[in-house]
Amino acid sequence: MDPKDAMKQIIQHNKTTFENTFNILATGQDQMETMMAMFLNQAAWLPAEGKKVIEEWVKANKKGRENFKNVVDESFKKVGGFFGGTAAGPMEGTKEMGYWEFKEGICNNAGWQLRKTDPQTYVVINSKHEKMGIFKSREGFFPDPEAFKAAEAPPESA
């Protein structure tokens, strides 16, 4: 196996493990937030200032969790681009596009097709039926650098 492919698999495994673990912890924190809200509603003895402090603490915790997830996601994008995965950032002008905007504004003009792989995630296929990258609705088109190198390379003469 090519070392680059092995690294891509390791990175993907780490990303999947992180996302699964993060989602489990986030679910636990959300449940604790619900329980805390029920407790605060029933705690007549707790002054309003105390309730407000606890509510602000819960909001800060949630915001910190979201910021942490965003930083880790960006790091995985960067390291994926370094090892020949999808590019580190979306193609300019596609970041806020939804499915229909991308399909009608870019794919139809370029002769590309979209194949759904996950909710809101599509593989972009060119007119030669080759993978060109990944489109994520409201995140953008992430071109596959290897596919673009192959498309730009002159044909080999026999």
Can you offer a commentary on this structure?
The chain is of the alpha+beta class and 158 residues long. Strand 3 and strand 4 form a beta hairpin. 60% of the residues lie in helices and 13% in strands. The protein has a 4-stranded antiparallel sheet.
Question: What order do the helices and strands come in, and which of them pair?
Answer:
Elements: H1 3-42, H2 48-82, H3 99-110, E1 113-118, E2 121-125, E3 131-136, E4 140-143, H4 145-152
Antiparallel strand pairs: 1-2, 2-3, 3-4
Helix pairs in contact: 1-2
Cross-sheet strand order for the largest sheet:
1-2-3-4
Number of contiguous helices: 4
Number of strands: 4
Percent of residues in helices:
55-70%
Q: What general outline do the C-alpha atoms trace?
A: elongated
Kindly provide the radius of gyration, computed on alpha-carbon positions and rounded to a whole number of angstroms: 22 Å
Largest sheet: 4 strands, antiparallel
Integer count of domains: 2
Uncertain segments are 148-158
H/E order of the elements? HHHEEEEH
Distance between the termini: 27 Å
By secondary-structure content and strand pairing, the structural class works out as alpha+beta
Q: How much of the residues is beta strand, in percent?
A: 5-15%
The mean pLDDT is 82
